[in-house]
Design goal:
Blueprint: H1 26-56, H2 68-96, H3 98-105, H4 110-143, H5 166-211, H6 223-229
Length: 230
């Protein structure tokens, strides 16, 4: 997530109290500096995401007719906008500390921690495998002809580019695509991980609640405990 600007901390969560004689410990200073760099990097990525989404709105022109290419353009516009929205959501979650709060203070059981770890490893493996396959196939189709030259919009669609410069334009356009494409996958994976955690804990709560009901249908447990846990 750090690689794609989806994670940073506003401040060092291990920061000592003011007046602590060890408050200027080098490790604390290094962690705070690292967090600041990540925040700046995430801000730059977020700005580039929205600029790219705005840029790609220029993909449409007067020569568009209903067909496969127009549908692909619409799909890619929504894809870039979705990527920017995901980036904004995670930036806000990091800026407000909500993501860190969920990850560190959510009261989960030990077996849920182990299950979440396995889920994270599986999702990471699936993501990188899918990315390599998709990007390999996408690279082949993108550079095989001029069918997808509209990706370099507003060039080619509204600004004429000489044929001898199109290779450079295609490479630059594809680099922008590569920077945005993986972030959506990573965002989805984090969402899936959080869903797994909540699903696992609610399922366990439901099972324990059923156990607290005897054969006559009477509830024998402490309802306040279940309510707080819920």
């Amino acid at each position: 997530m750090k690689l794609f600007g989806l994670y940073f901390e506003r401040q060092d969560r291990h920061r000592r109290r003011t007046g602590d004689p060890e408050s200027n410990h080098p490790a604390t200073t290094t962690a705070r500096t690292s967090s600041t760099c990540l925040r700046i990097y995430a801000t730059v990525v977020l700005i580039l995401m929205w600029l790219n989404a705005a840029r790609f709105l220029a993909v449409f022109n007067g020569s568009d007719r209903f067909g496969a290419q127009l549908l692909i353009k619409i799909m890619m516009v929504t894809w870039f906008c979705l990527a920017a929205i995901f980036q904004t959501a995670y930036y806000y979650a990091n800026h407000t500390g909500q993501l860190m709060k969920i990850l560190l203070t959510l009261p989960v059981t030990q077996d849920c921690v182990r299950g979440a770890h396995r889920c994270a490893v599986a999702l990471t493996t699936i993501i990188w495998t899918t990315l390599f396959v998709d990007l390999a196939i996408g690279t082949y189709f993108y550079f095989d002809g001029d069918r997808y030259d509209f990706i370099v919009a507003p060039f080619f669609t509204h600004i004429y580019v000489p044929e001898n410069n199109m290779i450079t334009a295609r490479v630059l356009g594809y680099i922008s695509y590569l920077l945005i494409f993986p972030g959506v996958f990573v965002s989805h994976a984090m969402n899936q991980l959080l869903v797994y955690v909540f699903y696992s804990e609610y399922k366990k709560l439901k099972r324990n609640f059923r156990r607290a009901i005897d054969e006559t249908g009477q509830f024998t447990g402490d309802l306040s405990i279940f309510r707080r846990r819920h």
